[in-house]
Amino acid sequence: MKRSRMLLDKTVLYCAAILVGCCFAAADAADGEVLKVGAAAVEITPAVGDLHYRGASTGVLDPLLAKAIVFRQGDRQAALVFCDVIGVSFDQSDAVRKLASEKTGIPREHICVAATHTHTGRLSDKAEQETTGRIARAIAEAHATAVPVRLQTATGRQEEISFHRRFLMRDGSVRMNPGFKNPDIVRPVGPIDPDVNVLLARRATDDRPIASLTVFAMHLDTVGGTGYSADYPYFLQETLRKRLGPDFLSLFGTGTCGDINHYDVSKAVPQKGHEGTTKTLGEALAATVIGQLPKMKDLTRADLDVRSRTLQVPLQEITEAELAWARQPEEGRRPLVEERLFLQRFRASKILSLAEMRKRWGANLPMEAQVFRLGADVAVVALPGEVFVELGLAVKKASPFATTMVFELANDCPAYVPTRKGFEQGDYEAINSRVAPGGGEMLVDAAVEMLEELQATGD
Question: For the chain, does the N or the C end have fewer beta carbons within 10 angstroms?
């Protein structure tokens, strides 16, 4: 009798807890504060024969997609769209953001258009114009399919597949990708970021996983050749779909990896190829994500908000003599600086590019940093350009949020954004950069300030 009474009491308490939870859920719904998420993908693969990173494209290894995720909570909305392309220009991202805003009502500043930086996904000017509407449509479709969700996060570690690609050499110089088993390598000059940040959306009605965002810092140049490919995120999605369902959508944000790639210089083996290297990398990353599924934690409280700040970052200065040198035909052009031939080519193209940029923008380049607060303990940071890993790590270290996901190539692709030290060390990334030294640190400071603002104003 006593045991029956105890069971009855427990049942009453359990039912009361359910009723209280339902009341809170109903109140949230009445207040319009339930977090909703929608995700959608639209194919953006150009026609075969169009411009490719290495000449004309010759086929499609896997489709290029624009994958969008939309967050809605009351009257607050935000959207992230990740495109399987090498870069998204300011003009294209601006057009997408305006069009998507018209279609959905999401403020332009709350929309981020990012590239995954796949080197087998370059768009010609014609293809860029053709895909702008499709990218906006992905956002609109995600917006239309938003449903109440439970958001979860986890951070795994993957230390086996990414490598710092800048090395101190025996002669004291620093070189990018100095060659496999090069005996003159002393050590890498910087770290990697082994964090595999995962954001998972589960549909509230049945707890079914509908989409995830994975952020990891490693260049997407693992395929080679002239066929279109989304690179290793394609195999990340295919592997996750085997575990989470055929309709599951895996979005990928490229972490700050301006000086990180997949080359292991200690091994003299082939390290490119769609069905070999690329598939292996994607499956390794997927294994890390799957390993985190039992460890996923619910957001303490969903609390959507966005900050955006456009900085006036100084462009590098160029002289008339440098511009005249860059305009000369490559054949017979004397070196401006004694350096490897491929560096001379990038130096010349950088000078010509800077001339056009300064004509359009003046001495300073507008560079936008965005911060998306998803909850009391989770934020997402979007930065433009190919950002050095050290800068992304600095944002994470200073962030007041327990989980801070930082990705690059957002809303514009103004080449490399090295650290001050990276500029001093020189070589490819510094030569191919357009911003002046200190520009990367400006982005870090702005991102941290916005993170602190959002943390202070959270519920």
Answer: N
Neighbour-count burial of 376, counting CB atoms closer than 10 A to its CB (0-12 exposed, 13-18 middle, 19+ buried): middle
Say if residues 87 and 20 touch (Cβ distance below 8 Å): no
**CA gap 459, 457 in Å, rounded:** 7
Torsion region of 358: left, alpha or beta (phi above 0 gives left; psi -120 to 50 gives alpha): alpha
The residues of the chain scoring below 70 in pLDDT are 1-32, 459
Residue 4 CA to residue 23 CA, distance in Å, equals 28
Closest CA to 306 of 106, 113, 142: 106
Closest of 402, 396, 401, 375 to residue 444, by C-alpha: 396
Instruction: Report the alpha-carbon distance of residue 267 to residue 337 in Å, rounded.
Output: 32
What pLDDT score was predicted for residue 51?
A: 81
* Tokens at 437, concatenated: 């030294």
The CA distances from residue 355 to 129, 336, 386, in Å, are 24, 17, 20
Sheet with strand 302-314: strands edge to edge: 302-314, 364-375, 378-382, 403-407
- Matching residue, tokens 């809170």: 24
Distances in Å between the alpha carbon of 439 and those of 91, 177, 215, 314?
21, 24, 23, 7
H helix intervals, 116-225: 125-144
421, two tokens: 């030290």
List, for residues 259-314, the tens digit of each pLDDT value: 999 999 999 888 999 999 999 999 999 999 999 999 999 998 999 999 999 999 99
The dihedrals phi and psi of 186, each to the nearest 5 degrees, come to -95, -55
DSSP, collapsed to helix, strand or coil, labels residue 428 as: helix
The single-letter DSSP state of residue 15 is H
Q: What is the pLDDT of residues 318-363, one digit of tens each?
A: 999 999 999 999 988 999 999 999 999 999 999 999 999 999 999 9
Burial 354-366 (b: 16+ CB within 10 A, else e): bbebbeeeeeebe
